[in-house]
Design a protein that fits this description.
There is one protein chain. The protein is mostly beta strands and about 325 residues long. It has three domains: about 15-85, Immunoglobulin-like; about 90-195, Immunoglobulin-like (Sandwich), CATH 2.60.40; about 200-300, Immunoglobulins (Immunoglobulin-like), CATH 2.60.40.10. It contains one helix and 26 strands. It has one helix spanning about 305-320, and strands at about 15-20, 25-30, 35-40, 45-55, 55-65, 70, 80-85, 90-95, 100-105, 110-115, 130-135, 145-150, 150-155, 160-165, 170-180, 180-185, 190-195, 205-210, 210-215, 215-225, 240-245, 250-255, 260-265, 270-280, 280-285, 290-295. Residues about 20-35, about 140-145 and about 310-320 have low confidence and may be disordered.
């Protein structure tokens, strides 16, 4: 541009200058980032404005006859121009989520990705189809892919992607996020999937049986709380089990952990008993149970001739081997 006064005279270099967004000097600062610029006025009156910036946005360039007074010398000053972001950078992009390292089995978890370029400017033209997110078993146990997460763009916020996933197995897993096969700076990271709360319909007897027996007998079994996905449940909101045996038999319940209990009761009479087991006032899986307790006199005994025959058969098998 050529600087002239209203009479057509070229203005001297000592009186002309330029500024960015109304500031005087050589830079404009935006937090830790800055935009640098300079002006050069040739003897012919030609003014060169040089700009180097790492911060995207729209800027106003003003040119002055006298920098002190701030008087515009061109009719269309200030002039607006836009600096676009550069290419997407996985390293500079930011992962944001309360579920980044901890979530619960069966819960819908969300990880927000703020896409940025090499200068930390938001990038608005990221292709969600190039962003790949996967949840792996901890390679120290089983390096098998378990889940592919869903990726979608948030239309209301340019440059913001939303990764959602639901995982039903409790444990430690590695979550990796890549864009166009390149890892994000924080990827892969460890995610802990916590078990859900107790689900009575999924809770059952894990040790021992309720099939009855020969009296007198002490019947013992173990109850272990499970969530609805078969994980050993969290103890949050779980009450002690309630075991009711017909005939008014006394039941002993011992806590092994907050989600595991040992149950025992004695039976010394022939009876067909109904055992009801409740957790949080709901029946567990298989409850109510029916168990038959019989006397040893009711157990059939093999005849001497039949037992002798069986001994001979077994002896022959042992010799042939």
């Amino acid at each position: 541009m050529i600087a002239i006064d209203k009479f057509g005279n070229v203005i001297g270099p000592e009186d002309i200058g330029a500024s960015l967004d109304g500031g005087f000097g050589t830079s404009v600062s935006f937090g830790a980032l800055s935009v640098k610029y300079s002006t050069t006025l040739e003897a012919s009156g030609r003014l060169t404005f040089s700009f180097f910036g790492t911060l995207s946005g729209t800027y106003a360039v003003s040119v002055f006859v006298n920098q002190t007074s701030g008087v515009h010398f061109v009719s269309d000053s200030p002039m607006m121009f836009t600096v676009l972001h550069s290419e997407f950078s996985s390293v500079k992009s930011t992962l944001m989520s309360p579920f980044l390292t901890l979530t619960t089995a069966g819960a819908l978890s969300s990880i927000l990705v703020l896409t940025k370029d090499d200068y930390s400017n938001p990038v608005t033209n990221v292709d969600p189809s190039l962003l790949n997110a996967q949840l792996f078993a901890d390679p120290r146990t089983l390096p098998t892919a378990l889940l592919v997460a869903n990726v979608s763009a948030i239309a209301s916020t340019p440059g913001l992607l939303n990764i959602t996933y639901v995982h039903n197995t409790a444990g430690s897993f590695l979550f990796e996020i890549r864009y166009n096969r390149i890892h994000f700076d924080a990827s892969p990271f460890l995610v802990r999937v916590m078990p859900g709360t107790v689900d009575p319909a999924s809770t059952g007897i894990t040790l021992g049986t309720l099939q009855g027996g020969i009296i007198p007998i002490i019947s013992t079994f173990t109850i272990e709380y499970m969530d609805r996905f078969g994980n050993i449940a969290s103890d949050i909101g779980a009450s002690d089990p309630e075991v009711v045996v017909s005939s008014g038999l006394q039941v002993s319940i011992t806590s092994i952990t907050r989600t595991k209990y040992s149950v025992r009761f004695s039976v010394d009479k022939v009876a067909s008993l109904v055992i009801q087991i409740y957790v949080n006032q709901l029946h567990i899986k298989g409850s109510p149970f029916t168990a038959n307790y019989i006397s040893s006199q009711n157990v059939p005994v093999l005849s001497n001739s039949l037992s002798g025959f069986l001994r001979k058969v077994l002896t022959c098998k042992l010799i042939m081997r």
